[in-house]
Specification:
It is a single chain. The protein has 407 residues and is of the alpha/beta class. The chain folds into 3 domains: 94 residues, no CATH class; 77 residues, Four Helix Bundle (Hemerythrin (Met), subunit A) (Up-down Bundle); 202 residues, Rossmann fold, CATH 3.40.50. Helix content is 52%, strand content 9%. It has 14 helices and 8 strands. Strands 3-2-4-1-5-6-7-8 form an 8-stranded mixed sheet, with helices on both faces. Strand 2, helix 9 and strand 3 form a beta-alpha-beta unit. The chain is flat.
Length: 407
């Protein structure tokens, strides 16, 4: 008999025994006497110490500990292995289930990303399809490729870089046919934007203070709501600082969101942004909160007094916690295209950015701007947004992005 058959037979024996255990009382199962009065059902981590009459409940949803110390002296070796096997199977199933859920969630995101990038892909894709349709690779083709990349908002520097890289790939691999350029372009683009892929690790500080900045309407407040949900999903506790004291609706927006999701929001009537952030950090310390997400009012880089004001918010945060802020995120609206590069530079000069969030990729054909950002200065692109839904913001992954952009 093969090992496989052996395992199946043993499992079948165990399975029918488990079925019996679930449906009959344990007293009968282990050969003991039927009790006069009902006893609580055994659970895997207590093991059968005696008879019971209540059927065992449905499998638990969290990993189960193997019985320890060893089950009661009266339990036979066979019973011990029966319960150990039960525990093993329950644990295995939960692990498999968790993997399935993670895989399904990844597939949903890849679908959303693809749908979100449809506008950019339709434009870029159609033009590239015409270019890569067939024929020889020649100078005319490179020129046309240059135009296509520029119109997808990649910017001059990134376009020059990509063309140089594509040419190298063509000559190294001895490519001749235009259809082979697609792979070369995907490779060059992935390599260019890969340095932006550095997921945010909220570890090492408690609270971990994340300050959020950006121009008006970029999606700061909405992104904070989405991020709070994202971090809650990772088992972290979150507190929000309604530091956008300029736009009253921003505070209400944040408070409504906090109420719905059971997240504390620190806000003040009037008051200044720095004071709200200061209070929020102290409240988070007192409550043992893991993450503080601090909103700020929208401002243009040309409004110098407002750029000074946001630098002050950063300094005041450092007064509440000398190690903070631990992350300074700039939220960019993808619709702004190449303009985003100036915003990155100005906010980086004022605050020293540690990460970027690119929102509204779903509403624009300017998704190529990521290449321009990567070429200018590879500040990690922590998250990208492809919709208004709460789950429409996720960590940036270069390969997924390029796959969704160039089919
Ligand atoms: N389609 C789409 N809309 C988004 C996305 N992110 C944010 N929005 C929308 O953009 C609009 C502005 O978002 P807010 O979060 O209010 O922007 P803000 O930066 O806080 O605005 P100010 O406080 O005025 O500076 C809202 O209608 C959001 O729903 C996204 O990824 N896709």
């Amino acid at each position: 008999m093969s090992d496989n058959q052996n395992t199946q037979n043993t499992s079948a024996g165990w399975g029918s025994k488990l079925w019996k255990a679930l449906n009959t009382d344990i007293g009968e199962l282990v050969g003991g006497e039927k009790p006069a009065t009902p006893q609580p059902a055994p659970t895997p981590d207590t093991a059968p110490a005696g008879p019971a009459t209540t059927p065992v409940a449905a499998p638990v949803a969290a990993p189960v500990a193997v019985p320890s110390p060893a089950p009661a002296a009266s339990t036979s070796t066979e019973d011990k292995s029966f319960w150990q096997k039960t525990v093993e199977v329950l644990n295995t199933d939960v692990t498999v289930l968790a993997k399935d859920v993670a895989q399904a969630s990844r597939e949903v995101w890849q679908y959303k990303l693809k749908a979100g990038l449809a506008k950019t892909r339709d434009k870029l894709g159609k033009e590239l399809a015409a270019l890569f349709g067939g024929g020889q690779i020649d100078e005319d083709l490179y020129e046309e490729l240059e135009t296509v990349l520029l119109t997808a908002d990649m910017g001059v520097d990134a376009t020059v870089h990509l063309l140089k890289d594509v040419r190298q790939r063509v000559s190294l691999a001895g490519l001749k046919d235009a259809s082979e350029l697609r792979g070369a372009l995907k490779g060059a683009l992935t390599d260019l934007i890969a340095p932006l892929e550095k997921p945010l690790q909220v570890e090492g500080h408690k609270p971990y203070i994340i300050m959020v900045a950006g121009v008006n309407g970029a999606g700061k407040t909405t992104s904070i709501g989405k991020l709070a949900k994202y971090f809650q999903g990772q088992g972290k506790s979150v507190l929000l600082a309604a530091g956008d004291t300029f736009r009253a609706a921003a505070r209400e927006q944040l408070m409504a969101w906090g109420e719905r999701n059971n997240v504390t929001v620190i806000a003040q009537d009037g008051g200044d942004s720095a004071a709200v952030c200061f209070d929020a950090i102290n409240a988070a310390k007192a409550r043992g909160i893991d993450i503080v997400l601090a909103d700020t009012a929208g401002r243009l880089p040309t409004q110098l007094h407002l750029m000074d004001e946001i630098a002050k918010v950063k300094r005041v945060i450092a007064k509440a916690d000398p190690s903070g802020p631990h992350e300074i995120l700039l939220v960019l609206d993808a619709n702004t295209g190449q303009n985003a590069l100036q915003q990155v530079k100005a906010f980086d000069d004022a605050l020293g950015l540690t990460g970027l969030v690119l929102t509204k990729l779903d509403g624009t054909a300017k998704g190529g701007v990521i290449a321009g950002i990567a070429k200018q200065k590879a500040i990690p692109l922590r998250f990208i947004g492809v919709g208004e839904g709460i789950d429409d913001l996720r960590p940036f992954e270069a390969k997924d992005y390029v796959d969704a952009l160039i089919e």
